[in-house]
Each structure stands twice: as C-alpha cells, then as structure tokens.
Amino acid sequence: VALIETHTGMAQPSAGSGFIYKKGPLNAYVLTNEHVLEGEKIIVTNSKGQETEGKVLGRDSYLDLAVIEINTSSAPKALKFGDSTKTKVGDSVFAIGSPVGRRYQGSVSSGILSGKDRIVPIKIDDKDEWVMKALQFDASINPGNSGGPLFNSKGEVIGICTMKLIEEGIEGMSFALPIEDAEKYLDLLEQGKEIERPELGISMTNISNTLQLINNDITIPDDIMYGAVVLDVKEESSASKHLQKGDIITQIDDQEIRDTTYVKYVLFQHNKEDKITIHYLRDGKKKSTKVTLQ
Length: 294
Fold this sequence. Notes:
- By secondary structure, the chain is mainly beta.
- It contains four helices and 18 strands.
- The protein has helices spanning about 180-185, 185-190, 210-215, 260-265; strands at about 1-5, 15-25, 25-30, 40-45, 50-60, 65-70, 90-95, 105-125, 130-135, 150, 155-165, 175-180, 200-205, 230-235, 250, 255, 275-280, 285-290.
- It has a six-stranded antiparallel barrel with strand order 1-2-3-6-5-4.
- The two termini are about 40 Å apart.
C-alpha cells in the first residue's frame, strides 16, 4: 500500500493512497482514485518509505480510477484481488491508507461490511453528476485514505476506498468501489486508452426540474415521484424509434431509475451493441421497449 502525493509548483502537496496490484520485469502498476491526482508531479512512497516518481497511464473520472506506473524496484509486493461478490454483510474488513497524509502513512482501521450494492450519488465536476454502486463499511477512513484498498479477512483486496458521508449526525458510513468494477477496465487504463461508453441518444432532465419541464411544455402527473424525463431524441439514434419527448423512464433492465444519473450509470455498465430493456410512462400508460445501444 502506497502514499501518493501530488505536487504543483511550490504548493503544499495533496495526498491520497493507492496500492500496487501488478509487477512486471521493469515496471509495476499502482491503482488509486482519479480525484487523488490533482497535481502535475506524482510521488509514490511505498510501505518501506522508498519514494519514486510515478507516471499516470490512464484515468477515468466516472469510475474515479487511475493507474500509475512506477519502477519495479520501488514495488515491494503486489496485492491480490479478492471477490467482493462472495462477501456477506457482517464480514470483517479492514482498510490501509494514509489518513491526512504522510504523517500517518500505513494506518490500519477495521470494521465490518455494512452493506452491498449501495447506490451513492457523487459529483464529477460542477455540472456533471454520477452514481456509484458501492460497498458500504464502517472501518474509519479520512481524507488521505482515498484510493487505498479495502481488504477481506484473507488480506485480499475487495474494494477501493473512495468516500465517506460527512454530515452532522452521521458516523461510520464509508464506501468503496467493488474491485470487480475496477478490474475489468485495468487493461484499457494501463494502455492509456479512454473508456468508450455507449449512447442512448436522448437529452433528459429530472422530474424535480420544474422550470426546464415548463420551458419544454411537459407536464408530469402528480403521482409520479421519480424517473428521468425525455426532453429530446436525436435523429438516427438508438432511441429514435422507441422514445419521444415527454416519456418518463422509470426502469432500465432491473434497475429502478430515480433520476438522470441512474440512466447514465446503467448505460455505462454496458458496451456498444448491447440490448437494454427500457420501461417508461407515456400519457400515463406503462410501456417497455428494447433498444440496441450505439
């Protein structure tokens, strides 16, 4: 498990965590959160205190993942991946990282797995929002733990510590990206390739966005409390023969759609040419259709 510090000029470095997951003859690979890498220069300090400059190979803001390359001589050992799908609520877990930075590098906290498949809203930037399906746990993490591993009792990595809820009256609610969700994209990130995601070909808004609905002359029935409202459908898009302005998407496959972020989340779990089943309301009537993604 490594400390990751990012430097920009003479500014105080920001810090996070990461871990070595693969070693080759010349280079080793470190996995961390994308939001940890806010600076221009990346310094990776391993568990033995050895510092080395890291090179960012690939990053993705939606998954909040990044892969850093370092010299193998600075990689004492690669951690093993476990399988979070085989875990049960109540299982023992522990986290290792660098809460509040270098001074507390290598801190260990323990707890239990509090929940699985939690849908957690996050902000990508000032405009874009996203939801993450996460593991919930109560082991203590703090700023600086981001990007560090969440282990099962066998010492296998089952998740990447990503965030915690910080609100008055809330304690012990931390979240990790399941390791399987990261693992399937590692080859692309190592090669520096962007993760291509399919499109549905619609613009949409939330039911709560009253002003935008009024401006588009769309009326929502009073008894409809959730869903994503279609504002426009692009010509020749995958949805052009299926959806129309005013439709309210309530479910895609087996995932309930609370708002527009859920639509993006479901789409981004698929590849181009995959087929999805969309359940929606039109003129108060329930309908469904199958759409091939582009």
